[in-house]
Transposase (Caryophanon latum), 145 residues
Amino acid sequence: MHHEVNQHIGISRGGRTTKIHAIVDALGNPLLFQLTSGQVHDSQPACALFDQLAIEGRHVLGDKAYGAQAIRNQLTSQGASYTIPPRTNAKKHWSVDWNRYKERHVIECFFNKIKHFRRVATRYDKLATSFLTFVYIAAIFKLTQ
């Protein structure tokens, strides 16, 4: 089991899964990737990903999963602003520019493009490094089309 944790393979009701976390720019071009096991919540690797980028003066769009106080604090402490809607069970709601939030579709479009590669969509690779390498290859291929 320890070996599978290192390979970012999680076990859920749907079987063995791996999540690809990505940050893209406003045009949908990928900037950064990270893998986690399928049962890891989306917000957990977010702070580590934001630490790897210079986001000062940038505007970050995210879905409700990224509305945790720690993530929002990190974004503002790094000089970035954000459009992240609060979860329905949030104790303190904040305002959201819903027109700007519509631009978040670029990340969904990016994932749709790289999942045309069956090897990315189904994770045939046993090793996480091999899988992540092919994610990069798929992204580069889509960027050059």
